[in-house]
Each structure stands twice: as structure tokens, then as C-alpha cells.
Design brief:
The chain has helices at about 1-30, 50-60, 65-70, 75-80, 115-125, 145-155, 170-180, 200-210, 215, 270-275, 290, 295-310; strands at about 90-95, 95-100, 170, 240, 250, 320. It is mostly helical and about 325 residues long. The structure holds heme C (2 copies).
């Protein structure tokens, strides 16, 4: 009898060990899964007005500097200055340490060797130059051809900075996630070639949804999947404090024109002034320094768009909350 049990246990053990080995092999084989996505038909330009538009997007509404800015120049970046986009800032996640890349045109450590189309495909379709799935940190999938061209033209025009950024460190659990769950994220529909830059709600909608990612933070989401679990722009997303993530969280306000919304009763002038002020709550992860550089016209368009939204009643009483209670 005992012998029989030992035998069964032995075979169960062998079966489990075999399954684990198969899982480990599958996971490691699936680390470099290749994905297909078209190369956008774009080409960097040397036209100074196109480069100027790209620079404006990178240090303004597109807030590339907020993540790609040199961490040693963070103080200057926070004052709204244009710092080198030489990367290195870590995102310390439970499943991986992700390092923001150097996007200056340095040949060895930056994007010097990438083609315009490879950069465009990464930003639009989330497929890295080597064909693997990019991590969904950058919400520019619906950026127009014209603006994407401007951004890449500006990236090319920068002074190259030699700065080797560490490779991402993916922990065991992260490797499993990477093997089975990470897929490239692409545009939500047909991407327009260009859009008139004016002060209309249509242009505001484009900035809020396809460039500045207002919708990303001001919508409640499932933090595991990123899927919306509340109405767009009605706020309530709980985020980590930018200065003390262990002890504090911060909730995003409701931006819809409801009496319970944060913007209720704000004039256009107040809205613009609020952006010029920059960050007021130190815990806030909102890229205020970049957004404070947005033009009056772009802010007018945003104001019009937010006021055109369907009012959603959702009062966010406290913005900064302690993690202890
Ligand atoms: C929220 C942070 C964040 C913002 C904002 C951001 N990036 Fe990134 N970027 C990253 C991270 C993280 C990676 C690495 C992604 C990966 O490896 O999958 C990356 C990778 C890249 C790459 C690929 C580089 C390479 O060598 O493979 C390019 C190009 C890029 N970003 C350009 C931009 C531009 C242009 C902007 C602004 C319009 C921007 N990023 C805004 C975080 C950000
Ligand atoms: C990375 C996340 C993030 C992004 C992107 C973001 N916000 Fe916010 N926003 C927040 C958080 C968190 C707060 C609350 C803390 C604060 O006031 O800074 C906030 C606050 C605000 C406020 C209230 C300010 C006040 O004084 O009460 C306004 C208005 C606002 N955001 C508008 C926008 C607009 C417009 C955009 C896009 C251009 C945007 N946000 C993009 C996270 C974000």
C-alpha cells in the first residue's frame, strides 16, 4: 500500500516537474515573439517650421520630455526648460524595471540607427524596431501623419547625446506576462493625415485624446488591463503619488461640465491661467511642466472640447488620499 502511494507521488512529482519545465521553455521561447504591423509612409523633413512643430509637441502637449528627459536635469525640466531627451528614467513595476530609452540621434546609444519608418511604426503600432511588442507607455497611436512626421523630424534635428540606458529587467512573473499577454497596441481607427490647427472643439478633442493623453488619466481604469471602467473624462482614476507613492495616492478630477466636475464655472481665461501656473500639488503625476508650455490657442480648443462633453455626475471629494486608511 505505502509503496503504491510513494509510486503515485513519484509520478505526480515527475508530471508536475515536466509541466514546469515545459512552461519555462515555452515562456522563454515566447520572449521574442514577432508581430506584424505596417510601416507608416513617413519621412523626416529638414524644413524648419516642421521641426518647430515637432519640438513644440515634444516639450509641450506630447510631453516626451516628461519621461525621456535626462533624470539629472529633472529640476530644469520641472521648470519647463527643454532638456536633452537622453532617457534613463526607471519605471519600477512589480513585474519589471523599465528604463525609458535615449531618443537623441546618437548612433550607439540612441535612435541614430533606426529608420524614420521604424520610429513611426513603434509610435503608431507599438511594434519595436526588432519586431517585438512595445510596452504601452506612449499614447500616440492616433497622432496624424503630419504631427508624427513633425515629431520624428524634430528627433532627427537634436544634438546626439551618448548615454547608454540599461536594458529593461523583466522578472520571472513579467516574463510570463510578456509571453502570453503583451500585445502591440495600435490606432483606434483610420488615422487622419492632418487636422486644422485652430481653437475648435474638434482640434481640442484631437489634443486631449491623441496627443496629451488627458483621456488616459482622467478616466477610471482597471489598473491591470488599462481598460476603462468609468465614463471618459469623468475622473476617479487612482494613481500613485509622484513624490511619496508608498504613503499617498491621488485621484484624477472629473473634467466633464457637470456641477460635480472640477472645471464647473471656470472661465476660459481661468483655465488658461491654471495651465500657466504648472504643478500646484506636488503629489500630482500630471505632466504640468510640459502642458504649461501649450499655446493659448491649443488651451482654448481643449477648454471648448471639455465643455462640449456630456456632463457626468461624479464628485471626487478628495484628490490626495493616504494609503493608510
Ligand atoms: C509615459 C512615459 C513616456 C512618454 C510620455 C513618452 N515615452 Fe517614449 N518610451 C517610453 C518607454 C517606457 C519606452 C520603452 C518602451 C519599450 O521598450 O517597449 C519608450 C520608447 C520610445 C521609443 C523607442 C526607442 C527605441 O530605441 O526603441 C521612441 C522612438 C520614443 N519612445 C519616442 C517618444 C516620443 C517622440 C515621445 C513624445 C511624443 C515619447 N516617446 C513619450 C516612455 C515614454
Ligand atoms: C499622467 C496623468 C494625467 C494626465 C496625462 C493629465 N492629467 Fe490632469 N490631472 C491629473 C491628476 C492626478 C490631477 C489632480 C492633481 C492636480 O491637480 O495636479 C489632475 C488635475 C487636473 C485639473 C485640475 C487642476 C486644479 O487646479 O484643480 C485639470 C483642469 C486637468 N487635470 C486637466 C487635464 C488636461 C486638459 C489634460 C490633457 C491636456 C490632463 N489633465 C492630463 C492627472 C493627469
Amino acid at each position: 500500500m505505502i509503496k503504491k502511494i510513494i509510486k503515485v507521488l513519484k509520478w505526480t512529482g515527475i508530471a508536475i516537474a515536466t509541466l514546469i519545465i515545459i512552461l519555462i521553455i515555452t515562456v522563454s521561447f515566447r520572449q521574442n515573439l514577432q508581430f506584424e504591423a505596417p510601416y507608416p509612409d513617413l519621412k523626416a523633413s529638414t524644413d524648419s517650421s516642421i521641426i518647430a512643430r515637432g519640438r513644440y509637441l515634444a516639450y509641450g502637449p506630447g510631453h516626451c520630455a516628461d519621461c525621456h528627459g535626462d533624470p539629472n536635469s529633472r529640476e530644469l525640466m520641472l521648470k519647463g526648460q527643454e532638456v536633452a531627451l537622453s532617457g534613463g528614467m526607471p519605471f519600477k513595476l512589480p513585474i519589471a524595471n523599465i528604463y525609458v530609452r535615449n531618443i537623441t540621434p546618437d548612433m550607439e546609444t540612441g535612435i541614430g540607427k533606426l529608420t524614420d519608418k521604424e520610429i513611426a511604426r513603434m509610435l503608431r503600432y507599438g511594434v519595436r524596431p526588432d519586431g517585438t511588442a512595445g510596452l504601452n507607455f506612449m499614447p500616440f497611436h492616433d497622432m496624424t501623419d503630419e504631427d508624427l512626421t513633425a515629431v520624428i523630424s524634430f528627433l532627427r534635428s537634436q544634438q546626439p547625446v551618448k548615454h547608454k540606458v540599461p536594458d529593461h529587467e523583466i522578472f520571472a512573473m513579467g516574463k510570463v506576462v510578456n509571453a502570453f499577454l503583451i500585445k502591440p497596441v495600435g490606432p483606434s481607427g483610420e488615422v487622419p493625415k492632418s487636422i486644422p490647427r485652430d481653437t475648435t472643439a474638434t482640434y481640442g478633442k484631437y489634443i486631449a485624446n491623441s496627443v496629451a493623453n488627458c483621456v488616459g488619466c482622467h478616466t477610471n481604469r482597471d489598473m491591470m488591463t488599462g481598460a476603462a471602467i468609468g465614463p471618459e473624462f469623468a475622473g476617479g482614476l487612482k494613481m500613485e503619488s509622484a513624490v511619496d507613492p508608498e504613503n499617498y495616492s491621488i485621484l484624477t478630477p472629473n473634467l466633464t461640465p457637470s456641477p460635480s466636475g472640477r472645471l464647473y464655472g471656470w472661465s476660459q481665461e481661468q483655465f488658461i491661467q491654471r495651465f500657466r501656473q504648472g504643478r500646484v500639488i506636488p503629489h500630482s503625476p500630471m505632466p504640468w511642466p510640459s502642458f504649461s508650455r501649450m499655446s493659448d490657442d491649443e488651451l482654448k480648443a481643449l477648454y471648448k472640447y471639455l465643455n462640449s462633453l456630456k456632463p457626468i455626475s461624479n464628485e471626487i471629494k478628495e484628490i490626495v488620499v493616504s494609503n493608510k486608511k
